[in-house]
Amino acid sequence: MLRQLVSHNDDIKRLVEKGYAVAIDGGYLIVRDMPYLDSAKALQWGAFVAKLIFKDSTTVQQEDHQILFAGSVPYGIDGKPIPNLAGGPTTLALSDDNKDVIVQRSFSNKPIASGAYTDFYHKIDSYLTNISGPAMALYQANPYTFRVKETIPDSVFKFADTMTSRAEIVELSAKFKDDVVAIIGLGGTGSYVLDFVVKTPVKEIRAFDSDYYHVHNSFRSPGRLLSDGELGKSKADVYRDRYDNFRTGLSMTAKMIDGTCTDDLNGVTFAFVCVDKGSARKVIFDLLLSMKIPFIDAAMGLQKHDGRLSGAVNATRYTVENAPELLIKGFSQLVDAPADEYKVNIQIGELNALNACLAVVRYKQMRGFYREDIPYDHLMLGIGDLKSAGVPNE
């Protein structure tokens, strides 16, 4: 990533050529080996961290005039804190590759003449003068160490995950790094689950569906329809083409999961079951439970009543431990209904998306990404009153 940015951004290139110890961490520019004085005027070493805003996959710009600092409060030769550095204590989690950089505070200092830094070179050079100048004068400390660090990217994404860095949730996103997620069924709900999970930094995604992509599928799935290249193809091929340029670790298989598919699910750590046929759901449940794979059953039931649609979307969390009790309570339909309106024609895109949201949020709660005040095993959201009802894990 650093080499790419140096090749396409003159200001980053100038920092490297001058000798700054530059590194890139996702959506952040790191500059190590910044000397400064502490309150006793002893020499210390810190690092600057600045947020990168990606204009495209290879060119970046600043977000603002602020900067983060890995170090304590910097002092001048007069023994007083360096003035005009607004901001305050803050923290930021970086990746394991740069865990030596421990951000402790933020600074906000605008150039007097222009009120804004022209680029990253101007910004880093200016903050160096203010913060490191006293240490350079007193100790002849040299910040130009040429200690460039080219981090080997381990991201599953094929471009920088600037969403995670902008939201400052790097440490939370790391909770997914070892997960291998199976999505069984790529219909209305399953296609939205796929869209959400593709953008989650799980290690691997395996999706399964034996059906073909037709016009009605485009009305209840995310993304645009390429009418001359998608209609009539398998759903597996359609969604592979849509997401292949987004991330690695993505496999789409045009098959139906049944009791013989243990090889397909070996290594899976979590699964989403998004099928609308009760008998197929039962076979999948039996297989997942026999393999000790926790899963969420995402389902919805809609009925036409008094000229309007009503019903609910459900997300039921199954583990080896809770499955016997939940299966007895019948939260998931495991037999084929003789007259199944939902299967025939009642699926609505926004409700499929809502069902998928409910399922994915529950999964992320299980991984500790979202807060979970009540660990519901079964959660239902009614369409008519938009009220939720849940069965907590006892």
Characterise this structure.
The protein has 394 residues and is an alpha+beta fold. The protein has 2 domains: 153 residues, no CATH class; 215 residues, NAD(P)-binding Rossmann-like Domain (Rossmann fold, 3-Layer(aba) Sandwich). 29% of the residues lie in helices and 24% in strands. An 8-stranded mixed sheet has the order 10-9-8-11-12-13-14-15, sandwiched between helices. It is elongated and about 85 Å long.
The number of helical segments is 13
**Average of pLDDT:** 87
CATH topology of the largest domain: Rossmann fold
What is the straight-line distance between the termini? 48 Å
DSSP summary, beta strand count:
15
Biggest sheet record: 8 strands, mixed
CATH 4th-level superfamily of the largest domain: NAD(P)-binding Rossmann-like Domain
The residue ranges in which pLDDT falls below 50 over 5 or more consecutive positions are 341-345
Q: Which CATH class of the largest domain applies here?
A: Alpha Beta
**How many separate domains?**
2
Strand content: 15-25%
| Rg, alpha carbons | 26 Å
Strand order of the largest sheet: 10-9-8-11-12-13-14-15
SS-derived structural category = alpha+beta
Give the ordered list of helices and strands. Answer: HHEEEEEEEHHHEHEHHEHEHEEHHHEE
Estimate the global geometry from the Cα principal axes: elongated
Helical proportion, percent range:
25-40%
List keywords for this structure.
24% strand; seven-stranded antiparallel β-sheet; alpha+beta; Rossmann fold; 394 residues; 29% helix
